[in-house]
Amino acid sequence: MTYKEIINRFREVVEDHWMIQDFGYGELSDIKTQSQLGPEEQGTDYPYMFLNPTSHTRTGPVMNYSFNMIMMDMARGEEGDVYDNYITIQSQCQQYIDDVLSQLYYGYSDKPEIQLTGITYTPFKEKYQDTLAGMTATITIQVPTPIDNCTAPFIAKELKSWYTESTPYTYGEDSGEDRNLFMNEVVISGAGYPWRWNVNRIQPQGSDFNGRLELTMEVQPLSATGSVVPNPFEIIVGGVAYTYPGTVLGWPTVVDDQVHEVTITWESITLPVDVDSYIRLLDQPEATANITVTNPNLKFYA
């Protein structure tokens, strides 16, 4: 079920209920009152159910939609016990809430998974333009909504070419060292771009590259004169004219002499034709350690 379908399901249940007269949705400031009259609007009829959305969360393939379900009626003049009238209304509104939950849960073959535990009921008596009484329930509806990239409306990117290097390289601890990523072995796919890779630079031939780059490698931080690990690689276009920071996973933050599996992804970047671009350790003069990079694999998707 989509979010809109869930809201419409609430509306449908309210319309089918014999006692609840009106339905509303939105922020608390959107609640209507019976005395709210104007040239193009009509106030509400009571009992009135108002659905106020709160924060929704995703847990893996399940969406959790959370709401304040506010059930209200107009508080009329007291008869007998001064509290009797609005307490009666609060009691009736709790029953209406339970009616709605019951119909949502049992009345449909594609029932949304309402959490029937942990619901809080809060009675209230408020004076807006109308004096109202009722009950507010906090509810959560769980809907299986897996994320499926197969149906996402994105233009599919095809692997065009990739580069590998089997020789480990150690990169220095300060800005004075050569910090460009070295790769010598070139592998071109059947629909590959005519790249030129000159040991440590990328230069598209024939046309600009527009797409995604993905770099995977094994990174081992090594003790040198200290323990500050260099920053991750970035792409430098045209010397220092433009820098593309990537999304980095697995980059080590301390010198532990361990091998770390690292992935850096650059999305929606442009590398101009016949312009040298570099994958380079971001300048960090404070770095006091070296890193060794093994098995770098750079893939181009366009």
Shape: elongated
Share in β-strands: 35-45%
CATH fold category name of the largest domain: Jelly Rolls
Helical percent range?
10-25%
Number-wise, the strands total 19
Largest sheet: 7 strands, mixed
CATH class descriptor name of the largest domain: Mainly Beta
Q: How many independent structural domains? A: 2
Instruction: Briefly note the structural class of the backbone.
Output: mainly beta
* pLDDT < 50 stretches: 187-197
Mean of residue pLDDT values: 79
Give the number of helices.
2
Q: What is the CA–CA distance across the termini?
A: 34 Å
CATH architecture of the largest domain: Sandwich
Quaternary structure: single chain
Radius of gyration: 31 Å
Index terms:
Jelly Rolls, 7-stranded mixed sheet, 7-stranded antiparallel sheet
